[in-house]
Amino acid sequence: MTIRLLPETLVNRIAAGELVERPSSAVKELVENAIDAGATRIDVVLGDGGQSLIAVSDDGMGMTREELSLAVERHATSKLPGDDLDAIRTLGFRGEALPSIAAVSRLAITSRARGAAGDQAGAWRIEVEGGAKRAPVPAAHETGTRVEVRDLFFATPARLKFLKAARTELGHAQDAVERLAMAHPHIAFSVSDGSRMLVKLAAAPGVLGGDLLEARLARVAAILGRDFAPNALPIRAERHGFVLTGHAGLPTYSRANALQQFLFVNGRPVRDKLLHGAVRGAYAEFLAGDRHAVLALFLDVPLDEVDVNVHPAKTEVRFRDAALVRGLIVGALRHALATAGHRASTTVAAATLDAVRPGAPAPSFGWPGRGAAVPNRIPPGLAEAARHYQAPLSLAASPGAPTAGAEPAETAPDHPLGAARAQLHETYIVAQTADGIVIVDQHAAHERLVFERMKQALANGGIKRQALLIPEVVELDERTAERLAGRAAEFAELGLVLERFGPGAVVVREVPALLGETDVQGLVRDLADELAELGEALGLKERLAEVCGTLACHSSVRAGRRLNAEEMNALLRQMEATPHSGQCNHGRPTYVELKLADIERLFGRR
Predict the structure, then answer these.
(1) Which of 254, 575, 193, 202 is nearest to 420 (CA)?
(2) Can you give 246-265 as a three-state secondary structure string?
(3) In Å, what is the CA distance from 386 to each residue of 177, 260, 322, 451, 577?
(4) Is 277 helix (H, G, I), strand (E, B) or coil?
(5) Cα-Cα-Cα-Cα dihedral of 14, 37, 296, 54, to 10°?
């Protein structure tokens, strides 16, 4: 077989196949070029989802006739002045985008360099069809550049078969622009389909000399919706020259997928497994396995510590010190979540109000319903312990104990969660605050409190154990019993002492003192299921909270248990003093707060 050089047109089409997967890929490359050109306004127009037309206009520095002719040649770029791939300060640098797009479409670029004289003499237009370039000609255009891509993939018909419906492709292109817009709030962006405006984002005035974090929050909120800002926590952290900023949503403000997780490295939007894994690890203690945080994080890294030349589309990066980056993200997010205290998202109350209006459907907060199987996914990481009210609740209330009136009404404003007024259906605590009411799920709230105490006890040297007066024998199958007995030493560190008892059973001799009276049989069986899911490769200490979450659930105040007034108020005070008590171990809210104004609107008083 004879070796030969491929034709230039075929080489360009192969490069286009790597770089331009769909219309949104071309949009991303063109918008990045406009940002690198110093634009303050970028307008995008799409026809048929970008297949028939992609037009990107900007007011950047523009190009001269000579630069315009070079721009459509392979590996021609203005973005590597020193030819140093270790010091890339721009979004683009490969010099492949324009020639690759031109190889599979009908491309036209009109540009006028900043400072060019005359109405027409300074503007030039060049056309490339299927890789065939024509000479630049004079044109009329204001300062900046307009790139028109028509009939994308006309030169590679096979690629057209893989495109989705125009509406789907339009959504991908819009997402690409919005991601870039988040990182550059000083630039105005618009996206149109020719007949209607899909995105219109004004430039934040004075951003470059002002508070970039607040400007980015406003831009992210403009894209994600007005609920994001009041439910987002500011993130600021720095370690060894790596700076992390942004905003992260409360755990109760979560989604069923990760589409609203936006991650940036040096202003470049990326989809990186390391970064997404760090986010998941930071939130794992607060979210069920099928829930995902909403956030926008901006990581600024020394140029010699990151390689952005990993993939032609530049959506992947490689860090010199991946452990440092992961630790920075996990630590910053966990610190922010800890400072949030018992706070829950405002959307919990909003969903409740929507649900109780006449004709409204049942509330849908996005968490599994009562009784649904919810996996604990909580990695190690010992959180800050509660500061007050550490004594366990007394559950020895008599059947006739009062359920209201423990504190006079005037003391309610002294506490964020108010004073207990009643217990409904032996499941929910109703408390009065200074300007509304709070409804607490007693089991979910106490489950989080017990879990936080167990973490504190482990951090302080170990969980205290309580010997059973009569050891409990738990019948299991042979393999399960063997699996539990094989991890007996690790269970002992968590306060549970068990050992083999015959071929298909274990005997439990001690349990964590925090559990009090508990269903030992159910607890051991649940732990066996957790252990089977974790696998043999991981130690229990490595996946500490999966086990602690199960222990906490078994020891918590159950729905259907009557509490007296002192116990209800003790629970409220502990929630106020305990980090993360706004959600249970599965990410569901532990309480709903309704303001008096909201209640008055329900009754038509406002």
Answers:
(1) 575
(2) EEEECCCCEECCCCCEEEEE
(3) 44, 32, 32, 11, 5
(4) helix
(5) -50
- Contacts with 95 (C-beta within 8 Å, 6 or more apart), sequence order: 73, 74, 75, 76, 77, 79
Distance in angstroms (rounded) separating the CA atoms of residues 136 and 384: 66
CA–CA dist 136, 145 (Å, integer): 14
Higher pLDDT, 283 or 406: 283
pLDDT at residue 560 greater than cutoff 80: no
Q: Which two tokens stand for residue 582?
A: 């706004």
- Owner of token pair 């070079």: 70
Q: Which is nearest to 443 in space by CA: 584, 569, 289, 592?
A: 584
Is residue 467 within 8 A of residue 510, CB to CB? The reply is yes
Looking at 94-156, list the stretches that DSSP marks H as alpha helix, in order from N- to C-terminal side: 97-103
* Backbone φ, ψ for residue 596 (5° rounding): -60, -40
Closest residue by Cα to residue 332 from 233, 421, 427:
233
Helix ranges (H only) for 386-542 are 442-459, 478-486, 488-493, 520-534
pLDDT band at residue 346 under the 50/70/90 scheme: confident
The predicted model scores a pTM of: 0.71
How far apart are the two ends of the chain, measured CA to CA in Å?
Answer: 84
* Contact present, 423 and 429 (Cβ < 8 Å): yes
CA 374 – CA 586 distance, rounded (Å): 7
Per the CB < 8 A criterion, the answer to whether 267 and 181 are in contact is: no
Task: Read off the DSSP letter of residue 591.
Answer: E
Instruction: Determine phi and psi for 9, rounding to 5 degrees.
Output: -65, -40
pLDDT band with cut points at 50, 70 and 90 for residue 165 = very high
Residue 341 three-state SS = coil
Residue 209's CB is within 10 A of a number of other CB atoms, namely 7
Give all domains of the chain, ordered by start, each with its CATH number.
8-201 (3.30.565.10), 212-339 (3.30.230.10), 341-398+411-606 (3.30.1370.100)
Give pLDDT, residue 229.
Answer: 93
Q: What is the DSSP string of 319-331?
A: ES-HHHHHHHHHH
